[in-house]
Amino acid sequence: MVKLVFALPVLLLACGPVEQPERLRYVAAVEIDMRTPADRADLLAMLRRHAAAGGLHVDDVSEPAAQNTALPPSERPTIYVGVWRGSADDDLEVTVDDTFHQGRPWIVFSRGARPELAAALREALLRDISRRWPGARRLPIDPSGGLAEERTSPTP
After folding, report:
1. Has residue 151 been placed in a domain?
2. SS3 of residue 143 by DSSP
3. pTM across the whole model
4. How many domains does the chain have?
């Protein structure tokens, strides 16, 4: 169930500019350079620390996602993580994914069902991310609440 629900925002994004439910609309996104095991460990520790402080939990399904043979090895994710509110994965607030852009995960923040709580998590995480990865790049969000077209395709 986690994999199916976690894939929902990705499927919605792939469908183009359709109206997403308000809680799934993206409100911010950054791309970081994650080249070393220490980078990965730091990001996961940061996500877990902020999730625990806000009553959320982290699901790291990177291993199963990396086994997706539908994609060539160079396009498979090396990190595929969701930060959820609710014990039954009720509300996906943060996704981390480097599918099609290995080593440069996109950390994407959804509006959430409780926007004020999601905003507090987002602001705290973005502060820590910018301290740890000063070169983090903001990714544009389009009016429909998805990632803007210019950044969703792989870069040469």
Report:
1. no
2. coil
3. 0.82
4. 1
